[in-house]
Amino acid sequence: MAWAVLLAVVVGFVMHQAMGLGRRVSVFVTRKTVSRSALCALAAGACGAAYALSTGRNPADVASSGQGTLAQLTSDPKAWGIGVLVAVLLFKTLAYALCLGALRGGPIFPAIFLGAQAECWSPPCRAWG
After folding, report:
1. How far is Cα 109 from Cα 114, in angstroms, rounded to an integer?
2. Which residues contact 47 (CB under 8 A, 6 or more apart)?
3. Which residue of 26, 76, 89, 97 has the fewest CB atoms within a 10 Å radius of its CB?
4. Half-sphere exposure for 70 (CA within 13 Å, toward CB)
5. How far is CA 55 from CA 5, 19, 73, in A?
6. Is the pLDDT of residue 12 over 50?
C-alpha cells in the first residue's frame, strides 16, 4: 500500500510538470503557429528516435498514445528493464508535453500509460509480474 501512495505522489508530480511544460509550449507556439508546431512535431519525433536508439525498442512506445503498449507492459512487466522504463518515462513525458502544447492529442491515454509504467518500477510488480 505504501508503494501505491508514494507512486501516486511521484506520478502526480511528473504529470503536473508535463502539463505545465505543455502550457509553456502552447504559449511558444502561439506566434508563428505553423513553423513552431512543425518544430515541436520534429522534437517529439526526435524523442521517439532517441528512445529507440538508446533502448533498441520500438519508437511507437513513445510516439503512440500508449493504449496498445499498455497491454504489452502489463502482460509481461519483467520484459521491460528498469533502464527502458526510465527512458520511456523521460522521452514519452517530453513528447507528451510537446504534443499537448503544439499538436493534437489528449491527456488521458498517455497519462494512464505513464502511470502504469511507473507502477512497473515497484518491487511488487517486479516480483509478481
Report:
1. 9
2. 62, 91, 92, 94, 95, 98
3. 76
4. 14
5. 29, 26, 15
6. yes
